[in-house]
Amino acid sequence: MATPQQDQDHDWDLTDPPRVLPALLLPATLLAQDALPRLLASQADTLAVRRVEGLTVYWYSFPMDWARERVRQADPQATLKRVLDLHEFMSAPVRSANDSALQAPLDRDAVVLDGDRFVGVQPPRPAQGRPVQAPVTSPAMAAPPTRQPATSRRPHTGQEQFGQVQQQVQHQERSPFTQHQNAMPPETALPEVATPEMAGAEPPSFAIEMAPEAMPEALPETAAPSTPPQPFSAHPRLDAPDTVQPRQAFTVTVGLAEQAQAGVIGGPVVLDLPANVQTFELGVQLIVDGFEAPAGQGLQATLQVNRARPGDATVQFQLVAPGLASDEPTRLSSLRVLYLFEGQVCGMALRRIAVVASQPQGAEPQPAHVQGHGQVWTQSTPQASAVNVQTGLPPVDLTVVIDQPDGDPSQGRFVWRFTSPHTTDLLHQAVPSDLGTGGAEFGGKVITEVHQATLLDMAELMVTGLGRTIHDAAPPELWQALRTVHRAMQAAGEQRALNVLLLTAEPHVPWELALFDDADKLIADAPPLLGCQVNLGRWPLDHSELPPRAHIEVQHMAAVVGDYAARSGWRKLQQAMEEGAQLVQRYQAVQLAADAPQIKKLLTARLGDVDPGHGAEAVHFACHGEAMQQHALDAAVILADGMRLSPLVFANAPLGKRSSPFLFMNACQVGKASELLASFSGFAGEAIKGGFRGFLAPLWSVEDQLARDIALGFYEQVFGDAGHAPRPVAEVLREMRARFADTEPNSLTRLAYVFYGHPGLTLSRKPSSTSSPSSTPEPQP
């Protein structure tokens, strides 16, 4: 008879990983003359298009070569909807970016979304014995050519081709990032270097799937307050119409409800309060885009909550809908409410809304039946996570929310909202910001330019130029908010660096590198970069616990070390092996080889010699890593035999649910420009969705020896070695970044690290009695 653990192992699929292809995403309203330069410049093999028709959103995918030719021959003033002859029956199905959904059979290309965020396109994945359905095409369309294999990559353009693309790009709509992307002349382009993929077949990857019924429950945190905690539970209340007409005035009711509301996206609000606290206050802030409040009325208020009757706490806001342009029959948007407790965001809720042109009397704007694979905007239900709130958290001095109410990843319109417990002088309205459609491309190009500037001995000059570009992309109100909060803290006698939490729906831009003006610097003797001036923690706006966990007690630590054999095609990392050995010696870490069997033991929380084993509250990787530009889910940690560890394995791993660990992916220098770490946003997002409560990794390739020194120094500081008190993760990283120009000339390794977590997150080392180097599995050769 199989044991539960054996059944659990059976549910993990290591042999048939889902594949999500990078794709260029464009809106159906884009004119052919503006689309063509982007099509020609893209290195993706697939074009994805988002089309809005009334209240319904449709998605499409096409082979890139076919789309280029189609657009090249079209009327320059025609939209992509007309050029590509988009119809409902051609629309592509939509899949969620989780391993379980992606493992299901698929007859045709599907668009993959993470909530509203576009991830890529999944190619057909037929069930065994079933043929793949031919792509659906319009009668007016010529049959597109066969899609290239998933492992093929479009070669980099030479200097002559690069110049032609540059001339065409000059005519496209520019984003705040366009100028910086094209700043490097073609003469500085790196020569193409063969990678393991180019030398032969692409190294295989593997993914792990966990059956929901086999996943262990998360262990609750324990505390010992003087009064036993009395749980308080309620759901967000957010009443508003699904549709409004242009310039229509309407009322939004915000509060708490005892039952979950239909149409409200958000997890329950849970507060652990002492039993003698019968009433308390919750702050609420409304985030909208284009909707206006009457003069003199803000969009924030305070709820007086009675724990016995939470539904009595409500507040009303009056809003006026935006007008519509003559060529804009519908505008899709969202209303988001933030709930704040003791000055920190403790939860949020979302409701879809649409502004529609005037309808005939009695007409129903919401379609009764949707053709093809369309999704009705006001009926969509993105994932929502429960909120776990604790009192007595370390302070968050400034919370910056970057939201995308229109949920349109093919555009770049965001709104920013600022909140602080130190002052009421911050702007009470959301601030719009148009980042254009180049955010994803910009995030990838940063990596290439870092490498180029290092080769040219111009690293510091590059950082200054890059920092100015990022500074200009943020609204001026960000810098004003930082100054205002800093002055308020100084006036109150708090002489310390600001703790800043960035709750963001924008995953690509490295805001840590934004350049301060000299007059705005908060720490006079630190470099004028945001990540050197404040203790900064990122956190995904949706699908994650709020607020982020502020403390992790580390009883067990695991160190995954890549010992690369010649057959793997990857350079040996001697310093990474020394890094792992030091973690074993200093912190009794369980050292694991970077291979599938041992990582599987880690992710299923089955470390140690005694069944059923244990997990780890701190996980460290010292390996090679890579990612394709603009495609987070194609990021990978390279295992010792050349296999690729996908981010998807972290989203369903029992380790996250059971141990709520801190994850440090210290992927060392891979030595070639085409192998640089374009983004670890895929690993960060999947790990956080899977229950990890802190994440640290470099955005680009880091030097092997320096990466080792940074890792060991990091743990010394956060664990409080050698008699020092433990220090918060973000504080240690701020000081580490600030030394980038003083310690290693022309090196940007110290600036590469990005942290996801509470800006006050601390780790404490409390070894378990089962932690001992003697029980450590030896790395396999």
How many beta-strand segments?
A: 33
* Spatial strand arrangement across the major sheet: 25-24-26-30-31-32
CATH topology of the largest domain: Rossmann fold
Average predicted confidence as pLDDT: 79
Uncertain regions spanning at least 5 consecutive residues: 1-10, 133-174, 180-225, 360-364, 669-681, 773-781
* Rg estimate, integer Å: 26 Å
Helix content: 10-25%
* Main sheet overview: 6 strands, mixed
Distance between the termini: 34 Å
- Counting structural domains, the number is 4
- The CATH class of the largest domain is Alpha Beta
**How would the global form be characterised?**
globular
Question: Topology of this protein?
Answer:
Elements lengths: L3 H7 L13 E4 L4 H10 L4 E8 L2 E8 H9 L7 H4 L10 E3 L2 H5 L6 E5 L2 E6 L36 H11 L8 H4 L14 H4 L5 E2 L22 E11 L3 E2 L4 E9 L11 E6 L4 E9 L12 E7 L7 E7 L9 E12 L2 E13 L18 E2 L21 E6 L9 E7 L11 E4 L4 H17 L3 H15 L2 H16 L7 E6 L25 H4 L1 E6 L10 E4 L2 E5 L12 H14 L2 E4 L2 H8 L14 E5 L1 E3 L9 E3 L5 E2 L2 H4 L2 H6 L2 E4 L15 H9 L4 E5 L5 H16 L9 H10 L1 H4 L9 E4 L5 E4 L16
Parallel strand pairs: 1-2, 4-5, 7-29, 9-16, 18-21, 21-22, 23-33, 24-25, 24-26, 26-30, 30-31
Antiparallel strand pairs: 2-3, 3-17, 5-6, 8-10, 8-11, 10-14, 12-13, 12-15, 15-16, 18-19, 19-20, 27-28, 28-29, 31-32
Helix pairs in contact: 2-3, 2-6, 9-10, 13-18, 18-19
